[in-house]
Amino acid sequence: MTLRLSRRAALLSGGAVALGSQSAFARTATNDDASLADAVDAYVKRCLAAWPDQPAVGVALVKDGETLLAKSYGTRIRGGNAPADETTLFAIASNSKNVTAACLGMLADEGKVKWDEPVKTYIPEFTLSDPVIAERITVRDTLSHRAGFGLGAGDLLFWPNSDRTRADVLRQAAFVPIEDGFRANYHYCNLMFVVAGAIIERVSGKTWEDFVQTRVFNPLGMTDSVPLARLADPAKSALPHGRVGPPLRYQGEMTQLAQSIAEVWNWDNAAAAGGICASPRDWAKWMALRLNNGALPDGTRLFSEAVAREMYKPNILVSNSEGPTAALPNRAIASTYAMGLQVQDYRGERVATHGGGSPGGISSTVLITARKIGISIFTNAEESALLRALRSGLTDIAMGKVDIDWIADSKRIEAEGIEKSLKAAVEIDAKQAAGAKPSLALDAYGGTWRDPWYGDIVIAPKTEGRGRNRKSGLWVSFTHTPALKGWLEPYDGETFRTRFPDKREEDAFFTFEIENGQPVRATLKGVSPDIDFSYDYQNLRLTKVN
Fold first, then answer.
1. Burial 472-484 (b: 16+ CB within 10 A, else e)
2. Is the pTM here over 0.90, yes or no?
3. Alpha helices per DSSP H over 400-506
4. Tell me: the pLDDT tens digits for 376-425?
5. Which of 221, 192, 224, 225 is nearest to 209 (CA)?
């Protein structure tokens, strides 16, 4: 596992791995508000100098309800002349989850929802592949990543952009395989947040986005932000960037991925899991609200203090260790997930955090609750090492406990990850070059292949071009995902691999099972070792239907 896994790193990575030079960094620790803002500003600039390919970064810093810094650095498009500023919109992706949790908290205050009431109380037709879990799963469970699904299970229903509606996703959730025990272990699961959003809609009578707009954005004065990416004006957005090879995704030169956020991140059908686009200026207001336990500056409340406490309450263990050491002074004894936030000890204090990742952007929110300090970092490129250096470095500055060179340490890990990735890419290509031929003629693998939760994948012969440019072979189409269409090439025996023309997407291995001289079943897995977890190809179980 390398740091090149952008969303996995943004959402799941933990603390330090090495102690760096102390002398150059201890001087930035401060408790004075103006000096703290200056130190944050200076550190962000140093990070950007170390990662010059990063187009834009938005940063917000709040303390005691006041915004000390809300600013964007760089340009909305790499190489462009349109500067990003405090009002620029970024896809904040899974940082949206703690907004969804708070919306349910508002309904809990009104007596319309109970945290420990079964989902079926609010959505009677709701079911899952395990009927016992379907009966028992509660509102709290949908927000806590403890239902028993594997990492990213069901994400292909909405990632990459798909034609599924919210109703489709809710219906198909009944067929997504559950691989672990109910409430047994932590597995990051977007799918259950879609269910949480559906509960909001059923109980309130409003769409999720209308509820967020009227009950959160409007009262807070979040006038820049939008609940859905398709509402984000490209002229006001930090547009997505990433590395699309060669040889594999997350390698190669930095590239602009799209002309709008929605082009690669239209999560209307999974908005409650990651739909919001926000500005640094607006997100500072949200962090101040969370740090003030639901109270607005004028004393009115969006949610009660009891609900605020409940949303910080740990529900499942993410990881644990023996705690800090001399080399790892920030290592957590216990990292947990509450509702829409990860909660852990960090240098002897409680912090509540969340990451976010979309194609072309990763982000992080850190709430140091006892100090009433909040930090957010939004980016429009998939530079995981940069996000790590910013998140950990700014947290340490805010706490006045700066003793690790996060820039140098993150650059080291990044270099190690790149080296491993490039080696893996060479090995993948070499295995294909030496691979055995398929046992059957290519046409035999064609047909409609069906998975119970995803739906149909069609494999058909195709020829394109003329003369020397003529190419014939198999063409695969994921029928609900427009971007996942491309050549299906022999790889090794009964294993084939895709070559999607859209290099923003991840390729997959198809391994066919032969019975009586015919392919009848197939399983999939990602080609790249760095594949984003939301390409949950491994959860597909295909059966040939014609």
1. eebbbbbbbbebb
2. yes
3. 406-433
4. 999 999 999 999 999 999 999 999 998 899 999 999 999 999 999 999 99
5. 225
